[in-house]
Amino acid sequence: MTDSPSSSTEQTPQRSITPMVLIVLITLAPVVFALLAYYVPALGLTPEGHTNYGTLVSPQRPLPAAETLGLHTLEGEAADLNEFHGQWLLVTADKAQCPESCVRKLFILRNSHASQGKDVKRLARVWLILNDGDIDEEILEAYKGTHLYRADPENIKEFLSPVTVEDTNTDALTQPMWIIDPLGNLMMEFPPDADPLKVRDDIRTLLRNSRIG
User: Fold this and answer.
1) What is the pLDDT along the chain (213 residues), one digit of tens a residue?
2) Does one domain contain both 80 and 148?
3) Could you tell me where the beta strands, DSSP code E, fall in 75-138?
4) Does residue 158 fall inside a structural domain?
5) Which residue range(s) make up the domain with 201?
6) How many domains does the chain fold into?
7) Both 10 and 79 in a single domain?
8) Is 101 found in the same domain as 78?
C-alpha cells in the first residue's frame, strides 16, 4: 500500500536554519571585532605589540554643530566641518602669521596626506586660523589643497582642548595636530614636533584597518 501525498509531506523533515545563522555570525564577526577594537580600546582587543604613535583622545569627542564652532571661510562665509562627513580630517590650528612651528605642522599633514597613495581621497586637511591676520602668499601656495577657516579660539577650545598639553589657555591650541574620524569624532592627537614618518604610519594604519571612511 502506497502512502498518500499528504502522509509523504508530513514525513519530510524540516531543514534547520542553524547553518545559515552560523554563516551570518562568522561573516559579521570580523566587522564587530574591528569596531570594538577601534571604539572601545579598554576592551583590550587591539593586537599585542600594536602601539599608536599619536595619543588617543579618550573619550572621543563628537564634532559640535556648525553654530557652536562658528567657522568662516577666508571670504567670510559660514563653514561647517560636518560637510566632510565620511572622510578622515587632519586638523591643525594656528595664527595667520604662521610661525615656523605652524609651517612644520602644515608640512607634516600635507606630506602625510599625499603619501597615502590610493587612499588619498579618504582624507582632507584643515587649518583653523585663530585670528584675522593676513596669510603669506607663499604659505597659501605651498599648502594649496588645505581647507582654511577662521575660528574663534573661545568657540573651538572645548572641542580641541589638547590632551598632551598641560596649558589650558588658547595658545595651547597651536601646539597639537589632530585626526577627526569619518563619523566626526576627535580621536587622535600629535605634538607639533612629531616625527613626520610616524604620523604618516599612524594614518596609514588607521586607513588600512578602518571599515569606515
Assistant:
1) 455 555 444 555 566 787 777 776 777 666 565 555 555 555 545 544 458 899 999 999 999 999 999 999 999 999 999 999 999 999 999 999 999 999 999 999 999 999 999 999 999 999 999 999 999 999 999 999 999 999 999 999 999 989 888 766 768 899 999 999 999 999 999 998 999 999 999 999 999 999 888
2) yes
3) 78-79, 88-94, 123-129
4) yes
5) 55-209
6) 2
7) no
8) yes
Q: Are residues 135 and 32 located together in one domain of the fold? A: no
Angle at 180 between CA 137 and CA 196, to 5 degrees: 60
In a domain, 48, yes or no: no
Q: Residue 160 corresponds to which cell in the numbers above?
A: 580641541
CATH of the domain at 59: 3.40.30.10
Helices 196-209 and 100-114 cross at an angle (nearest 10°) of: 40
Using the CB atoms, write b or e for 16-45: b if 16+ within 10 Å.
Answer: eeeeeeeeeeeeeeeeeeeeebbeeeeeee
Sheet of 147-150: strand order equals 55-62, 185-190, 177-180, 88-94, 123-129, 147-150, 71-72, 78-79
Partners of 55 in beta bridges = 189
Same domain membership, residue 172 and residue 76:
yes
Contact 92, 105 (CB under 8 A): yes
Q: Are the CB atoms for 115 and 121 separated by under 8 Å?
A: no
User: Could you tell me if residue 49 is inside a domain?
Assistant: no
Instruction: Kindly report the length of the chain.
Output: 213
Is this structure's pTM higher than 0.70?
yes
85: amino acid identity, one letter: H
